[in-house]
Amino acid sequence: MMITPLPVNRDLILGSLSKGVRSDGRRLDEYRPIKFEFNVISKANGSASVRIGDTYVLVGVKAEIGKPFPDTPDEGVLIVNSEFVPLASPQFEAGPPDENSIELARVIDRGLRHGGAVDFKDLCIIPNEKVWILWVDIYVLDHGGDLFDATALASIAALMVTKIPVVVVEGSQIVVREEKRPLKIVDYPVSVTINKIGNYLLLDPTLEELELVEARLTMFTNSKGEICAVQKGLPGAFTYDEVMKSVELAKSKGRELRSILLESFNNWDKNVRGALNGV
Amino acid sequence: MVSSGSVVFPGDFLGVIEEFIAGDGVKEVDGSLIAVRFGRLKIDVRERKISVESKRSLILPVAGDVGLGYVFDVGFESAGIKVSYVEGKGVLRIPVTAYLRLPYVSSNVRYNSMYDVVREGDLVRAVFLNSWIPYNVSIRDNDLGVLFARCPYCVSPLYLRSGRLVCSKCNFHSSRKFASGYLLKM
Amino acid sequence: MSGKKRLIDENGLRVDGRRWNELRPLKIEVGILSNVDGSARIIQGKTHILVGVYGPRESFAKHVSLPDRSVVRCRYRMAPFSVEERKSPAPSRREIELSKVIREALEPAILVEEFPRTIIDIFIEVLEADGGTRCASITAASVALADAGIPMKDLVAACAVGKADGKLIVDLSDMEDKYGEADVPVAIMPNKNIITLLQMDGTLTSDEFNALLQLAMKGCKRIHEVQRKALKDGFGEIKNLVLEE
Hints:
The complex is a heterotrimer. Chain A is an alpha+beta fold. Chain A has helices at about 5-20, 100-115, 145-160, 205-210, 240-279, and strands at about 35-40, 45-50, 55-65, 75-85, 125, 130-140, 165-170, 175-180, 190-195, 200-205, 215-220, 225-235.
């Protein structure tokens, strides 16, 4: 259930937006601090959690051997699923995924797929018969405003640390070995979601600001700066100029997010390797 | 040993009824006083009252609180209000439903029906009469009543002009029990 | 016992190197979520659970509320990546049963009569499961309820005990739970010393049962200390918890 914002709130937020600052002191195109945690779930093949301010999401990747889709017989399968668990927000009801949760999962799926995150051919074991199926399960644990960008970051981060067992084909038999190997990560697609309030475009809205957001534009970019998935959401609309401005924002901010992601990953990787070598 | 300011947990033994009177967050069980919430102990020496203060003690409105909310349902004799804000306490996470009945509308003016008092969508300031669900509220005082309303025909905001609510666009006069602090004045 | 995994070695140490009366490292964090009224995270060994509490709040569905008391609802769910083989997100019969026993373990402590016609919602999300999830859920949920300021007669602390390779053990891991001879989850209200959860899976003599129950209650009391510390400082931890015999 939505709580109708009191009129005071709206004026306050719009007033501060017109000055180019937000109620928490950020610029319009500024994200709250972003924090990564890698491999938080040891039972998953790969996992990562991301916090952007109050937003807290966790993504776990599970790998299974299964049948490929008939139209892509030599490619692995990626399935993205999302759960808005009720402890994340009083507005999330217990029960099967609603339209918001399905929309999020499908947009992330497209972003990862068209962003060329994973080499799907690398996931093929026996063409037409057996391939790796990657289940990407998104858990929204605390709703702090910007779910798309946080889950996109967490999803690619989880894939980056995902390890699948090495398999050997002997005749028609598949032997699953103990040792594990990482996925072939080809690109790092990230999403930047532009939120429109009045005539202002802002990134990473707080929950308070989110209540006033009229329209939302999620844009995935890859490391070449190409746009690889777009989704417009909410009942409002964008002008042509706003869309083009959003493209620029998505590219420049996407680059920023990607470097934060890679830097966090490298730091984590160095620590893990350091710990292994040190012992 | 219990002392003012110390941290207590649910189930902690605080003393016996001969020593203190149970205040907020304290319950008497078989002659013993037990903390029933997590927080800091407060001992009022003069009144011999012991209570537990918690930063989360606000959960639901109590009698005497003044709330802000939107009218969501109007009948002939009563109206339903979703209260989402309590003055001095803040925004309620989950709005509570409160009912306004005709006898609690005004002490000097007689309204025949609730339709002359509030309409659906009005923003109302009202005082809680009880501390439990279902809540009842009153708007008898001068500073209580409708704070903001829209014209039922053209949906433009209504302005307060010489004691009446008038639509800024179509000049339609609307009857309401408005508060002295009505937001739009002309 | 042939063909079964050995759970206790010749030195009396368990699969993860613990002694029979040693609990796994336990960590409780309080108030970690921003949108709920009360929350807690518990990490016990590899078991990792998040609990959020809403309420008391008005019930939107009138038929679930009661005129004289608050209704407590509890939802225990496991994340698809929390276990070895991916779990479907649809609720299983096990999750439905656990939701019920967890609720009934917590309810005796809650002063439900203070808030008639309201609902208290407890949401438990198991992010990683490695045995003892129901006990960890109860321990964390009770802390989350206290964090929400909900009046309670007492906290509720829970601890699992059991038997593996003919020996009594505390705080079972997933393997000991699966391959051991018995599993006894227990929850108590530590100040009142009354039991609010008691289940048993397996076979035990009455002497063993008696010994285990006493052991579990000792364990609960130690966990209660961590709960209190977590509430007070926002964080509570015990790295090496060995129960005295």
